[in-house]
From TrEMBL:
<feature type="domain" description="Carbohydrate kinase PfkB">
    <location>
        <begin position="28"/>
        <end position="148"/>
    </location>
</feature>
<dbReference type="GO" id="GO:0016301">
    <property type="term" value="F:kinase activity"/>
</dbReference>
<dbReference type="InterPro" id="IPR029056">
    <property type="entry name" value="Ribokinase-like"/>
</dbReference>
<keyword id="KW-0418">Kinase</keyword>
<protein>
    <submittedName>
        <fullName>Ribokinase-like protein</fullName>
    </submittedName>
</protein>
<keyword id="KW-0808">Transferase</keyword>
<dbReference type="Pfam" id="PF00294">
    <property type="entry name" value="PfkB"/>
</dbReference>
<dbReference type="InterPro" id="IPR011611">
    <property type="entry name" value="PfkB_dom"/>
</dbReference>
Length: 150
């Protein structure tokens, strides 16, 4: 019912899974570690329901598909602009829901079919962050688990 691809498997397996997935399966793609620009251009984006990236990955993906760097001073404005810009690219499917994690700022979501992004600020911690290793994987797991409950 759900397919999560986190780019920790051979690229050929990711491509095969997306090309053969049933239309009733909800698909999630977290391109970490980031594939090459040519790999990103060959991805069957129409088979992806949700793309989960951090801000740096969103920028890399945009650069790979468009070839230009978006410049902005404000992190939230840049993330929102990146999500809108990704969705507008001809090689990218407009049906993909977009999730962009922003570290200590929180997360921005642009659902499929929506032009309005949803911003959820991060909780403030009582203690300093010790290590962020695995934070993206943990977020992705909980995000997909939330869909599996409904």
């Amino acid at each position: 019912t759900h397919l999560l691809l986190q780019n920790e498997i051979p690229w050929s397996s990711t491509i095969h899974a997306l090309r053969t997935v049933e239309s009733t399966t909800l698909t999630f793609f977290n391109p970490s570690p980031m594939p090459s620009p040519s790999q990103l251009r060959e991805l069957p984006w129409s088979a992806v329901n949700w793309l989960i990236v951090n801000e740096g990955e969103a920028q890399s993906l945009f650069d790979a598909l468009r070839g230009e760097v978006v410049d902005s001073e404000e992190a939230l404005s840049r993330a929102h602009l990146l999500l809108e810009s990704l969705r507008a690219l001809p090689g990218f499917s407009s049906s993909v829901g977009l999730v962009c994690t922003l570290g200590s700022l929180g997360v921005m979501v642009l659902p499929s079919g929506s032009v309005k992004a949803i911003y959820v600020p991060a909780l403030k911690l009582n203690r300093p962050v010790v290590d962020t290793t695995g934070a993206g994987d943990c977020f992705t797991g909980y995000f997909v688990a939330g869909f599996m409950k409904h």
